[in-house]
Design goal:
Helix content is 36%, strand content 20%. Strand 5, helix 5 (207-227) and strand 6 form a beta-alpha-beta unit. The protein contains 10 helices and 10 strands. The protein has a 6-stranded mixed beta sheet, sandwiched between helices. Strands 1-2 form a two-stranded antiparallel sheet. Strands 3-4 form a two-stranded antiparallel ribbon.
């Protein structure tokens, strides 16, 4: 029975996985699951799955198991009562929420978008403890007693002493026969990553543009978290000046001042140098803007900061330009002119609307850095 239940549960999980893959583009573009994210799991609404259940009828209404019947009689479904458009008492189709781990969701994302796995470039100085059972001892806690080894030791002792009777094969271990598993603690270096999100929060970046960034950052986090044992996320907002903030402030702040992108790049470079300057971190800065900048001189400063400080320290730098009715969209053109196709670490992506998020994720994660 337990094996049958396990088999049914496994099949149900496969069905759920298939439904998620079929609807993944909708989940990405609509942002339906962002508000249902826990620490390690995400609740996903799947209205298409029907859960089998018993339905009990009223007594004395006839049917199978009541009254006389002929062998071989074909059973037909009953007529449906009621007319279209009238109020009814039957329950409607309900949305089923299934919990999926972040790791499972990342696997589905990788399979559906055909994302290559990332090869970490370094090991951080922090180490994780790993326990391995490496041998057998004669002493130890009872919770680690090795029953097979204990039985073999008792059997050998009884055979050697002539106490073993093949016609009555009873083996009784004594204290000297007990064997216990022993362990060894080893320390493994962890491959850690840091994401640094930067976003323009000036007046031209409205709520719709920030929602695009919020959805895309969720999926970027999900994939990178599946590739590394540790993931740190930092947030920088900027208008004419840059500041480091928490996640909530990052997505809900709106200013009315001008835009100097170099202020964010300068702060990003300082964070990398101060906190991730060992060369052992896998660093992923992402900048989102509508393409407006204060001046061409400030754009030149941004390009210089990218060339000399940010790109050399990063696995990849992603710039996502969100379309806005108030933004000029010039900054991505300046970056293309300055770097062309020569800088592999620089990835540029244009996000016109919700439908463009899927391709933007492919742009940022499709190179396996």
């Amino acid at each position: 029975m337990a094996q049958k239940i396990d088999s049914d549960h496994s099949r149900f999980r496969q069905i759920v996985r298939g439904k998620i893959k079929d609807n993944l583009r909708r989940f990405i573009t609509k942002g339906e699951i962002l508000g249902k994210k826990g620490k390690d799991v995400v609740a996903i609404p799947l209205p298409q799955i029907q859960i089998p259940r018993f339905q009990y009828g009223h007594k004395d209404t006839g049917g199978v198991g009541q009254g006389e019947g002929e062998v071989g009689t074909v059973l037909q479904p009953g007529d449906v009562e009621g007319e279209a458009g009238q109020a009814g008492s039957d329950p409607s189709e309900h949305v089923l929420e299934v919990e999926v781990t972040i790791e499972e969701l990342a696997q589905i994302l990788g399979e559906e978008l055909e994302l290559p796995r990332i090869e970490p470039r370094g090991k951080h100085r922090l180490e994780s403890e790993k326990t391995r059972y490496t041998g057998i001892h004669r002493v130890g806690p009872e919770s680690l007693r090795h029953f097979k080894r204990t039985f073999k030791a008792a059997l050998k002792r009884q055979i050697a002493s002539g106490l073993y009777d093949p016609n009555n094969p009873v083996v009784i271990p004594i204290r000297e026969d007990r064997r216990y598993r022993s362990w060894k603690v080893s320390w493994l270096p962890e491959s850690n990553a840091a994401i640094i999100y930067m976003m323009d929060v000036s007046g031209s970046m409205g709520d719709e543009q920030k929602e695009l960034v919020r959805i895309e950052s969720f999926w970027l986090d999900t994939w990178l978290q599946s590739q590394y044992q540790g993931l740190e996320v930092r947030y920088i907002t900027h208008d004419a000046a840059a500041r480091e903030v928490d996640r909530h402030t990052f997505f809900h702040t709106r200013e009315s001042g001008g835009t100097m992108i170099s202020s964010a790049y300068q702060l990003c470079a300082e964070i990398i140098a101060n906190d991730y300057g060992s060369g052992e971190w896998n660093i992923y800065p992402f900048h989102f803007s509508d393409g407006d900048n204060w001046s061409s001189d400030d754009t030149k400063t941004c390009i210089e900061l990218l060339r000399t400080k940010i790109l050399p320290a990063s696995n990849q730098f992603g710039y996502g330009q969100v379309e806005s009715p108030y933004g000029s969209g010039q900054f991505i053109k300046d970056l293309r002119e300055a770097f062309g196709d020569q800088e592999e670490k620089l990835v540029l992506s244009e996000i016109a609307d919700h439908e463009a998020i899927v391709q933007s994720i492919r742009d940022f994660l499709g190179k396996g850095r």
